Amino acid sequence: MKRTLVICSGGLDSVTLAHRIAAGDGGIAGLLTFDYGQRHRKEIDFARACAMRLDVPHEVVDMSDVGARLKSSALTGNKEVPEGHYAAETMQVTVVPNRNAIMLTIAFAIAAANGIERVAAAMHGGDHFIYPDCRPAFTQAFQDMQDRALEDVARVELHVPFIDWSKTDIAAEAGRLGVPVAETWSCYKGEARHCGRCGTCVERLEALHEAALPDPTEYEDTTYWRQAVSDR
User: Fold this and answer.
1) Which reaction equations make up its catalytic activity (predicted)?
2) Which of the residues 39, 188, 197, 207 could staple to 171 if both were Cys, CB 3.0 to 4.6 A apart?
3) Is the pTM of this model over 0.85?
């Protein structure tokens, strides 16, 4: 059994991944969350709650100074978060350049320094066409790079079990594992409640519906997602 450092944002995907590993896919060494100045940084509280629920250590890495220099994204700058179904032409504005590359590099360094054999991340198939650092080619290249960066120092494996899964697959896995869906945060707007209209909210609502998983999450708008899906 490999000890695993799980990168957990507090979203449905990464929280489900943490529950999956805790349920038997290996031992969790801890959850690692990044504060990169994202407008939806309240997700960090949901990652913290996940760590408490699973009774594992939780560490938050402050990358806000780096994030402040990445203003091209709606997540770290002043651009509006797009509404509607996930689409390349609208969601492109949510790309934070090199976000996963930076986070994974830090996670691998922490794992190597602490004798942890595996780093887990929740990239999935639904993100491939928007986010280049969520694609299989990236994860394989990153592993190759780390094998050389840590040669004769440590061997750390990148664990991405959802890399070819759909969001609906992850929602179904959340149901199987008994993940408390309402205790995860997806909305990119980061307001008091999920907006129900941004790309991540629409994707979340659609996936939970398709997986027939009850969703007690509070949304500002609970019907818009159906229109967004039908209009795509």
Assistant:
1) 7-carboxy-7-carbaguanine + NH4(+) + 2 ATP = 7-cyano-7-carbaguanine + 2 AMP + 2 diphosphate + 2 H(+)
2) 207
3) yes
Beta bridge partners of 194: 219
121-152 core/surface letters (b: 16 or more CB in 10 A; e: else): bbbbbbbbebbebbbeebbeebbeebeeeeee
In the chain, domain spans: 3-78+98-186
Which parts are annotated binding residues for Zn(2+)? 187, 195, 198, 201
**What is the predicted pLDDT for the residue at 25?**
59
In CATH, what number does 3-78+98-186 get?
A: 3.40.50.620
The pLDDT score that the predictor gives to residue 164 is 94
Rg of the chain over all Cα atoms, to the nearest angstrom: 17
- Give pLDDT tens digits for 105-161: 999 999 999 999 999 999 998 765 678 888 999 999 999 999 999 999 999 999 999
- Name the one residue in this structure whose structure tokens are 């990148």: 158
At 77, the pLDDT band (50, 70, 90 cuts) reads low
- List, as residue ranges, the binding site: 8-18, 187, 195, 198, 201
